[in-house]
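Budget justification aside, the reviewers requested a transparent look at the raw inputs and outputs of the sequence design task funded under Objective 1. We therefore reproduce one unedited record. The lines immediately below are the structure tokens for a 102-residue chain.
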């Protein structure tokens, strides 16, 4: 989160009143189903940023979006390479720019 709060982005971050929440911040267990996560995000008006977008089972994120998405639903933003976020500052910067420019 430091990247998007850094110089160059802080004014936009503050102007848009963007906040960041983790599972424990919103009362979700780490093992919550994708369906429960998506439903909470829609209900509470959170844009979900994830690297998980599979259709492995009926509660998967992709299945949930396909069955419950409406024109009023908030988008889900998917990060292509979450592992790369751990070791590439350049990739982190690219992801932050993409998210804030969207």
């Amino acid at each position: 989160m430091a990247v998007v709060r850094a110089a160059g982005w802080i004014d936009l971050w503050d102007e848009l009143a963007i906040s960041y929440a983790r599972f424990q911040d919103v009362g979700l267990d780490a093992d919550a189903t994708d369906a429960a996560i998506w439903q909470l995000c829609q209900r509470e008006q959170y844009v979900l940023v994830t690297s998980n977008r599979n259709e492995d089972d009926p509660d998967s994120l992709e299945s949930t979006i396909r069955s419950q998405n409406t024109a009023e639903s908030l988008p889900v933003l998917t990060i292509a390479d979450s592992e790369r976020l751990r070791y590439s500052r350049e990739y982190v910067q690219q992801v932050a720019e993409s998210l804030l420019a969207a």
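The mean pLDDT is 84. Residues 21-87 form one domain. Computational costs for records of this kind are itemized in the attached budget.
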